[in-house]
Amino acid sequence: MAVLDVRIYPDPVLRSICATVTEFDNRLRTFAQNLEETMYSFPGCVGIAAPQTGELIRLFLVDVSRRKKAKFNHGLMALVNPVILEKEGESVSREGCLSVPEFTGNVSRATRIFIEGQDLNGEPIAVQTEGFEAVAFQHEMDHLDGIIFLDRVRSSGTDIFRR
Amino acid sequence: MEAKAVLTAVGKDQTGIVAAVSGVLYELGCNLEGSSMTLLQGEFAIILILSFPERDVMKKMQGRINKLEKEWGLLFSFREVPVEDFESTPKTESNPYTLNVVGVDHSGIVHRITVLLADLKVNITNVNTRLIGEGRQVPVYVMFLELDVPVIADESEIQSELRKLADELRVDITFAPVDVFKG
What we know:
Number of helices of chain B: 5
Structural class of chain A: alpha+beta
Helix content of chain B: 25-40%
Shape of chain B: globular
Radius of gyration of chain A: 15 Å
Strand order of the largest sheet of chain A: 1-2-3-6-7
Order of helices and strands of chain A: HEEEEEEEHE
Strand content of chain B: 35-45%
Shape of chain A: globular
Largest sheet of chain B: 4 strands, antiparallel
CATH superfamily of the largest domain in chain B: ACT domain
Number of domains of chain A: 1
Distance between the termini of chain A: 54 Å
Oligomer: heterodimer
Largest sheet of chain A: 5 strands, antiparallel
CATH class of chain A: Alpha Beta
């Protein structure tokens, strides 16, 4: 296993559309292990997407299990070729990103999502989740389409006031 | 030698203020390192951190500011900040929190709450307050604060102190950590 280099914005790989994974081989699983080690090497990090390490494939990891306050928690999940099929609700939370260091911003996301994809062996999986974990899935999902959270930042709470 | 400064401006809002102020900075080759600008009722307020490639350029600022003051009716302040201040600001380790207050309006809400926070060594990083439902019989006061709470602070003590004060002021106070997603 190895900790991979994390690409920092404005690295163009972060703006690329990632390719669908077709080969569920050992190479893919080894890469996912390295991605996992990379994610855990950053304290407090709860998700990482393949393109953040320069690998332009539709794969990301999420693990919110070490966040006490995350009510919905499926532990460590690797999702390949994910598709969000349902979104419900809207809430704003503070996000940061390994690829955009030293900045956090308020982002609006769906509160409940239903997501389908494949595991590292190509078997179909489906996840229904809410809250913090749902935010994690949506943030990582964006990376696969070249979107970073800065694209979705809203200015602070003042927005909700009529001026 | 690079030099830095803080510039503030406040004035009656009109379209084009930001373009005019930033235009002057651009002409001088000055960089806008950070900014916060907001419209509050009819007043527009600007705070900027500026960096100048050469300290000499700063001398040209006062003349430009005077012109902007006349043309746009803004009130400016301009002050050099030693570059070292940015590099060596000792940061107490802290976590971000939000504090929301909602209640029937009466005087002293902001003061009492912020005095308590200062006593507890909690630093305020952002404040927004509004009166909502004006014209109705009972105007409601809302305040949103963003806070830096030192890591060493006792969260439950802050909670219980705030609860006591909320009862006394007859307002609802919600104090919660900002759960920052990192991925």
